[in-house]
Amino acid sequence: MDFFHLTPAGGSGTIQVELVGVVREEAIIVKGLNPETKLALDPFNDYDAKLLAGCHLSSFSTRLTDGGEGPFGCFFLTYPENLAHSTVRRYRRIVTSFPAKVQSGDYLRAAVDVTVSNMSLVGAGVSSDVDCLSVGQNARLVMNLPVGNHLRPVLVTVEVRNRRERDVGFFYGLEFVRMSEEVRHDIKDFVFDKLSML
Fold first, then answer.
1. pLDDT confidence of residue 68
2. Residues 14, 19, 20, 23: what is their CA dihedral angle, to the nearest 10 degrees?
3. How distant, in Å, are the alpha carbons of 104, 125, 126, 192 from that of 160?
4. Model-level pTM?
5. Continuous segment of H or E residues that includes residue 182
6. From 2.40.10.220, 2.40.110.20, 1.10.287.130, 2.60.40.10, which CATH number describes the 94-195 domain?
7. How far apart are CA 169 and CA 60, in angstroms?
8. Which neighbouring-strand residues pair with 162?
9. Can you list the residues of the chain whose pLDDT is less than 70?
10. PilZ domain: which residues (predicted)?
11. Rounded to 5 degrees, what are φ and ψ at 134?
12. Roughly how many angstroms between the first and final C-alpha of the chain, as a whole number?
């Protein structure tokens, strides 16, 4: 499972939970992702739930069962009466708009300001006022990913897959070719966080 998010019905702000188990037709058992932070769910509130497993996105409404708090930090949610299913492309690009910098392999050239306009788990689309990259070239993409309430600084080695000239500048399709495991997790968190809001 890639993510399980709860959002208070009529509210905002997602709560990330981990699926512990299912009692078929009766309850869904969840707990908080961070063991250092106690998960707090309101027994008087309904929650909109989104669960992504592979390429399957399920949406449903749920709430705490009577006596819904269990041992080991677990909570029991009502089993969904209605499930909405949709298929998500594994490498679906999400629309974004935040600043980043691209450093070409020529270290004598200064880093160029770009705007990240879309992103997936395997690549990103960026735009720039200047023509700074060519197809097949390797470069470094430096960005601060807004995940939750934090900005996560990441560095990714990319390969330029396509280049298009536009009226207001240039657009580049970048494939991620090398990154640390920590950065891979940050990108995954960012993409899935945005997908959960769709």
1. 87
2. 110
3. 10, 10, 10, 24
4. 0.64
5. helix 181-195
6. 2.40.10.220
7. 43
8. 173
9. 1-2, 12, 54-55, 87-91, 107, 148-149, 196-198
10. 88-192
11. -125, 155
12. 18
Structure tokens at 185: 């997790």
**93-133 confidence digits (pLDDT tens):** 889 999 999 998 776 778 999 999 999 989 999 999 999 99
Which CATH fold would you assign to the domain 3-87? Pnp Oxidase; Chain A (2.30.110)
Tell whether the torsion through CA atoms of 140, 141, 144 and 146 is positive or negative: negative
- The 8-class DSSP code of residue 163 comes to E
Residues of the chain with CATH 2.30.110.10: 3-87
